[in-house]
Amino acid sequence: MIRLALAAALLIATPAFAQQGHQGHNTRPAPGVAEPASTREFRAANARMHRDMDIRFTGNADRDFAAGMIPHHQGAIEMARIQLRHGSDPDMQKLAEEIIAAQEAEIARLRAFLAR
């Protein structure tokens, strides 16, 4: 009975939490409040990635996947470079470097596929 009550409470609360989280997504600071440089750079990289991912679909799932993943991976590289410029945590810096190497290799593989 307690499990059922907890499950019901969670189901009722979930939309409110999800909505609350969504409302806070991509918010801007109040007028006159300076936004950190890293935040401005992340916003720009995110906008660029989403714009570039808006590809013309061909109906060929393989080609569309490759064409869409290139800007997606490029966005990850840009975010990792922002982390390297502005971050300070050694683990996050290491992860950013690993992401750059991995995503660059995957972009090369995706471009080679598209060139065939």
UniProtKB/TrEMBL annotation:
Keywords attached to this entry: Signal
Keyword Cytoplasm: no
InterPro entries assigned: DUF305_CopM-like (IPR005183), Ferritin-like (IPR012347)
Stretch forming the signal peptide: 1-18
This protein's record includes keyword Signal: yes
Domain DUF305: 19-114
Protein name, per record: DUF305 domain-containing protein
Organism: Falsiroseomonas stagni DSM 19981
Organism phylogeny: Bacteria, Pseudomonadati, Pseudomonadota, Alphaproteobacteria, Acetobacterales
